Every structure is written in C-alpha cells, then in structure tokens.
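Bug #77: duplicate submission created two jobs. Keeping one. Sequence:
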Amino acid sequence: MKLFTYWRSQAAFRVRIALRVKGIAMEKVSLDLLKGDQFAASYQALNPEGVVPTLVDGEGPPLTQSLAILEYLDEKYPDPPLLPAELRARAHARALAQMVAMDAHPFIVPRVRKYLEDELHVDDAARAKWVRHWLDAGSHAIEAVLARDPRTGKFCVGDQVTVADICLAAHLTSAKLFGGRDPANYPAAGRIYANCMAIDAFAAEHPLRQPDAPKS
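Kept job's structure:
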C-alpha cells in the first residue's frame, strides 16, 4: 500500500499505526503541508481536499479520511480487530476516537492555522494559545470519560487496542510535541498512552521517527 503522509499529521499517524498493527507493509510518500505540496496537481488528482492521509490500495480509487481508512483496513484485514466485538463497546470505541479526531483535531490543522494567520492576522502567540486550547479541550474530555467508565482497562475499551487508542495516542502525542502538555497530567488517558507507546506499532510510527521529521 502507498500512504501519502506528513510527519506531524495526527491523521496520518493514526493510519500509520493501524497499518503497523495489522502487519501491512506500506510505502510512505511524504508531503510537506507547510510548503504546499498538497496543492500539486498530481496530489489533487488523488485527494481534491488537499489533506493527508491518502491511501492507495491496488487499482481502486484512493482512500481518504483517517477514520474511514481505519474502518476499511479493519474490514479488509480483520485480524487483529480494531473494534470490540460487542455492539455498545464498538460504539463507545468510535465515540472516544471521534472526541479527539473530530471534535479537537480539526481546529489545529495547517489550513486552519494558516487562515488565522493570513486572513484574521492572528499573531504567533495567539495562534499557539488557540492550538493549546483545542488540544486541552480534547484531552480533558476524553480523560473525563475514561476515568468514570467501567469499560476502561489497559486500553480505552478493555485490554485490546482499538481505534480509540490509536486516536488517543495521536492526540496526546500532538499535545506533548506541539502544546507542551505532559500526558501524565491525565491519569487515565496518560496511563493508556504509556501502554500504547510501549507497543512497537505505535512507537515506530511516532512523528519524530518519520523520515521527513526535522533532524534537530
């Protein structure tokens, strides 16, 4: 499979983890979103939205949107599963994933930050405050749910890695790298994050271990 990715993208991180968990080989094509690689005509032909990730699997149309890609991978390669077997637990795992992937992450992506800078003339300090606010909002929300839900175990839903853990790990990694937030500040979420990052599929795809990550 060919994955179009960017080292600091939460969404691409999610898909990289899932491919590793499933044991699927990937060819990475790195785009620099800050330089505008996503607007090249060749990439726009694959993903008109101009975002990452995009997954090319064989001769079929490209796959976009990280959560949709995770479910595609889980349906095509069901072992190991990324969703629990029980119906309500599956919905719970999806809900946890969406809390950070859909309710927090969209506010901090490069195109939003660029709009704040170019159109609204928001300065660096204010943009950084904006990013921390949405990262913190997502962290507080998922911590509150994990801390009180009896289904929380070694991972977000019991003792098996699910889409919820993949999204949590990507979110808290961004909060640590780009928001200066320590995952340990969130007892339940931080504990699960540590469990995730002890797994090679997570650790090997950390943003700073990507070939396009800054060397310093």
